[in-house]
Design a protein that fits this description.
This protein is of the alpha/beta class and 235 residues long. It has eight helices and twelve strands. The chain has a five-stranded parallel β-sheet, with helices on both faces. Strands 6-7-8-9 form a four-stranded antiparallel β-sheet, covered by helices on one side. α1 crosses α5 and α6 packs across α7.
Length: 235
């Protein structure tokens, strides 16, 4: 079985070595980078299965690294777990808006980080084995095999979390979900996250979906649903 390849990006050598040690104990292949430029070069060259990315880096910061990865069609599907030491929700929200899939606050327990990695990789594998390979809704096509979303024949670049969230909503269109239900569906019930994550991903999805964005409807006091009819109105 092929070992999953993890790219660890942080400028603290001791932390990188600690994370590397624990990931290798779990039989992952680990590559590292200490700055943003090196991280991008390694990601393009090695195409990791997951990236652990510090927010504060010398030169190009983690947010810019994340943005550039998401702009590259070869890397848009790679899960990104941010490391943030700032301890402010606003930084997490910005990171998620740039395309990160999850976050861990510094200082963190290495076991917690390894668990997040395992959860993300497991979710990606389940996604690739999904029974319903292609979901269609009007001019919107969600292909789980190619990990592509097209609208009116034009490709839309989505992060892993955005892809899973959209697919879940469209597959279950008409049904209202709480934020917690959506978090569990796309991130796993064993991952601790904040409700704000869903709001950020939904806002980004609406922008990327253009005329189909309004189909993601906010249910006040509950969460979200995807309208059943193309061009329908809930108002």
């Amino acid at each position: 079985m092929k070992k999953a390849r993890i790219l660890v990006v942080d400028d603290e050598p001791d932390l990188v070595e600690l994370v590397r040690h624990h990931l290798q104990r779990e039989h992952y292949e680990v590559i590292t980078a200490a700055d943003g430029e090196t991280a991008l070069a390694e990601a393009r060259r090695r195409l990791p299965d997951l990236v652990i990315l510090d927010l504060m880096l010398p030169g190009i910061d983690g947010l810019e690294v994340c943005r550039r990865m998401r702009a590259d069609s070869r890397m848009t599907h790679i899960p990104i777990v941010m490391l943030t030491a700032k301890g402010e929700e606003s930084d997490v929200v910005i990171g998620l808006a740039q395309g990160a899939d999850d976050y861990v606050r510094k200082p963190f327990g290495v076991k917690e980080l390894v668990a997040r990695v395992a959860t993300r990789l497991r979710a990606a594998e389940l996604q690739s084995n999904d029974v319903q390979k292609v979901v269609r809704f009007g001019e919107l096509v969600i292909d789980s095999v190619k990990h592509e979303v097209q609208l009116s024949g034009e490709a839309i670049a989505l992060t892993v979390t955005e892809f899973k969230l959209l697919r879940h909503l469209v597959q279950n269109r008409g049904r209202a979900f709480t934020r917690n239900e959506l978090l569990n569906a796309v991130m796993g019930a064993d991952v601790y996250v904040i409700d704000r994550n869903v709001d950020v991903h939904v806002a980004t999805l609406r922008k990327k979906l253009g005329s189909y964005g309004p189909n993601i409807v906010t249910i006040r006091g509950l969460g979200y649903k995807f309208r059943e009819a193309v061009g329908a109105s809930d108002g």
